[in-house]
Every structure is written in C-alpha cells, then in structure tokens.
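Technical annex, item 7. During the second reporting period the consortium partners agreed on a shared format for inverse folding records so that results from different sites could be compared directly. Each record opens with the tokenized structure and is followed by the designed sequence. A conforming record, contributed by the partner at site C, is shown below for reference.
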C-alpha cells in the first residue's frame, strides 16, 4: 500500500497529500495489528515488539507531519489544494 501511495504521489502531485495520508494511515493500522499479534502470541519476542513500536513511532510522526495544515511537498504545493506555499 505504501508503494502504491508513493507511485500515485509521484504521478498525481495534486492528490499527494490525501493519498499519502491514506497510505500512511493504512500502514499505521497494519503495524497496530502486527503489534497486537506480537503481544497476544506466545512467546513475546523482544525484537518483534521493538520493531513494531519503532515503526509505529516513525509512521505516527509521518502522519502528524502530513496532517499539519502548512505541510508542503517537494514541489512547493500544499497538499491537494494546489496553492504554492511561500517560503
């Protein structure tokens, strides 16, 4: 899903913010599901828990950055609005 989101962001930059939010949100749900499996399975493997928690932190940071109103992509457009952001 993240790869498909990256392709769409590249091909359709005006939809980049919405697509990126959807792809990262979907990834967060997947990591939460994996973390749930890791917590409920026996034995708990520390590496599995550490992996899921660290990936979750990175994805949540990306989600927060994308959700910020002033987020601007590499082309200077603010999300799906298509208005240039002054720097």
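Designed sequence (site C submission):
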């Amino acid at each position: 899903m993240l790869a498909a989101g990256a392709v769409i962001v590249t091909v359709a930059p005006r939809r980049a913010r919405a697509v990126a939010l959807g792809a990262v949100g979907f990834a967060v749900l997947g990591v939460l599901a994996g973390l749930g499996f890791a917590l409920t399975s026996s034995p708990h493997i520390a590496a599995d828990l550490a992996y899921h928690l660290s990936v979750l932190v990175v994805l949540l940071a990306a989600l927060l950055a994308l959700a910020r109103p002033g987020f601007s992509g590499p082309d200077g457009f603010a999300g799906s609005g298509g208005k240039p952001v002054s720097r």
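The first helix runs from residue 2 to 11. Residues 2-9+17-69 form one domain. All partners now use this format for quarterly exchanges.
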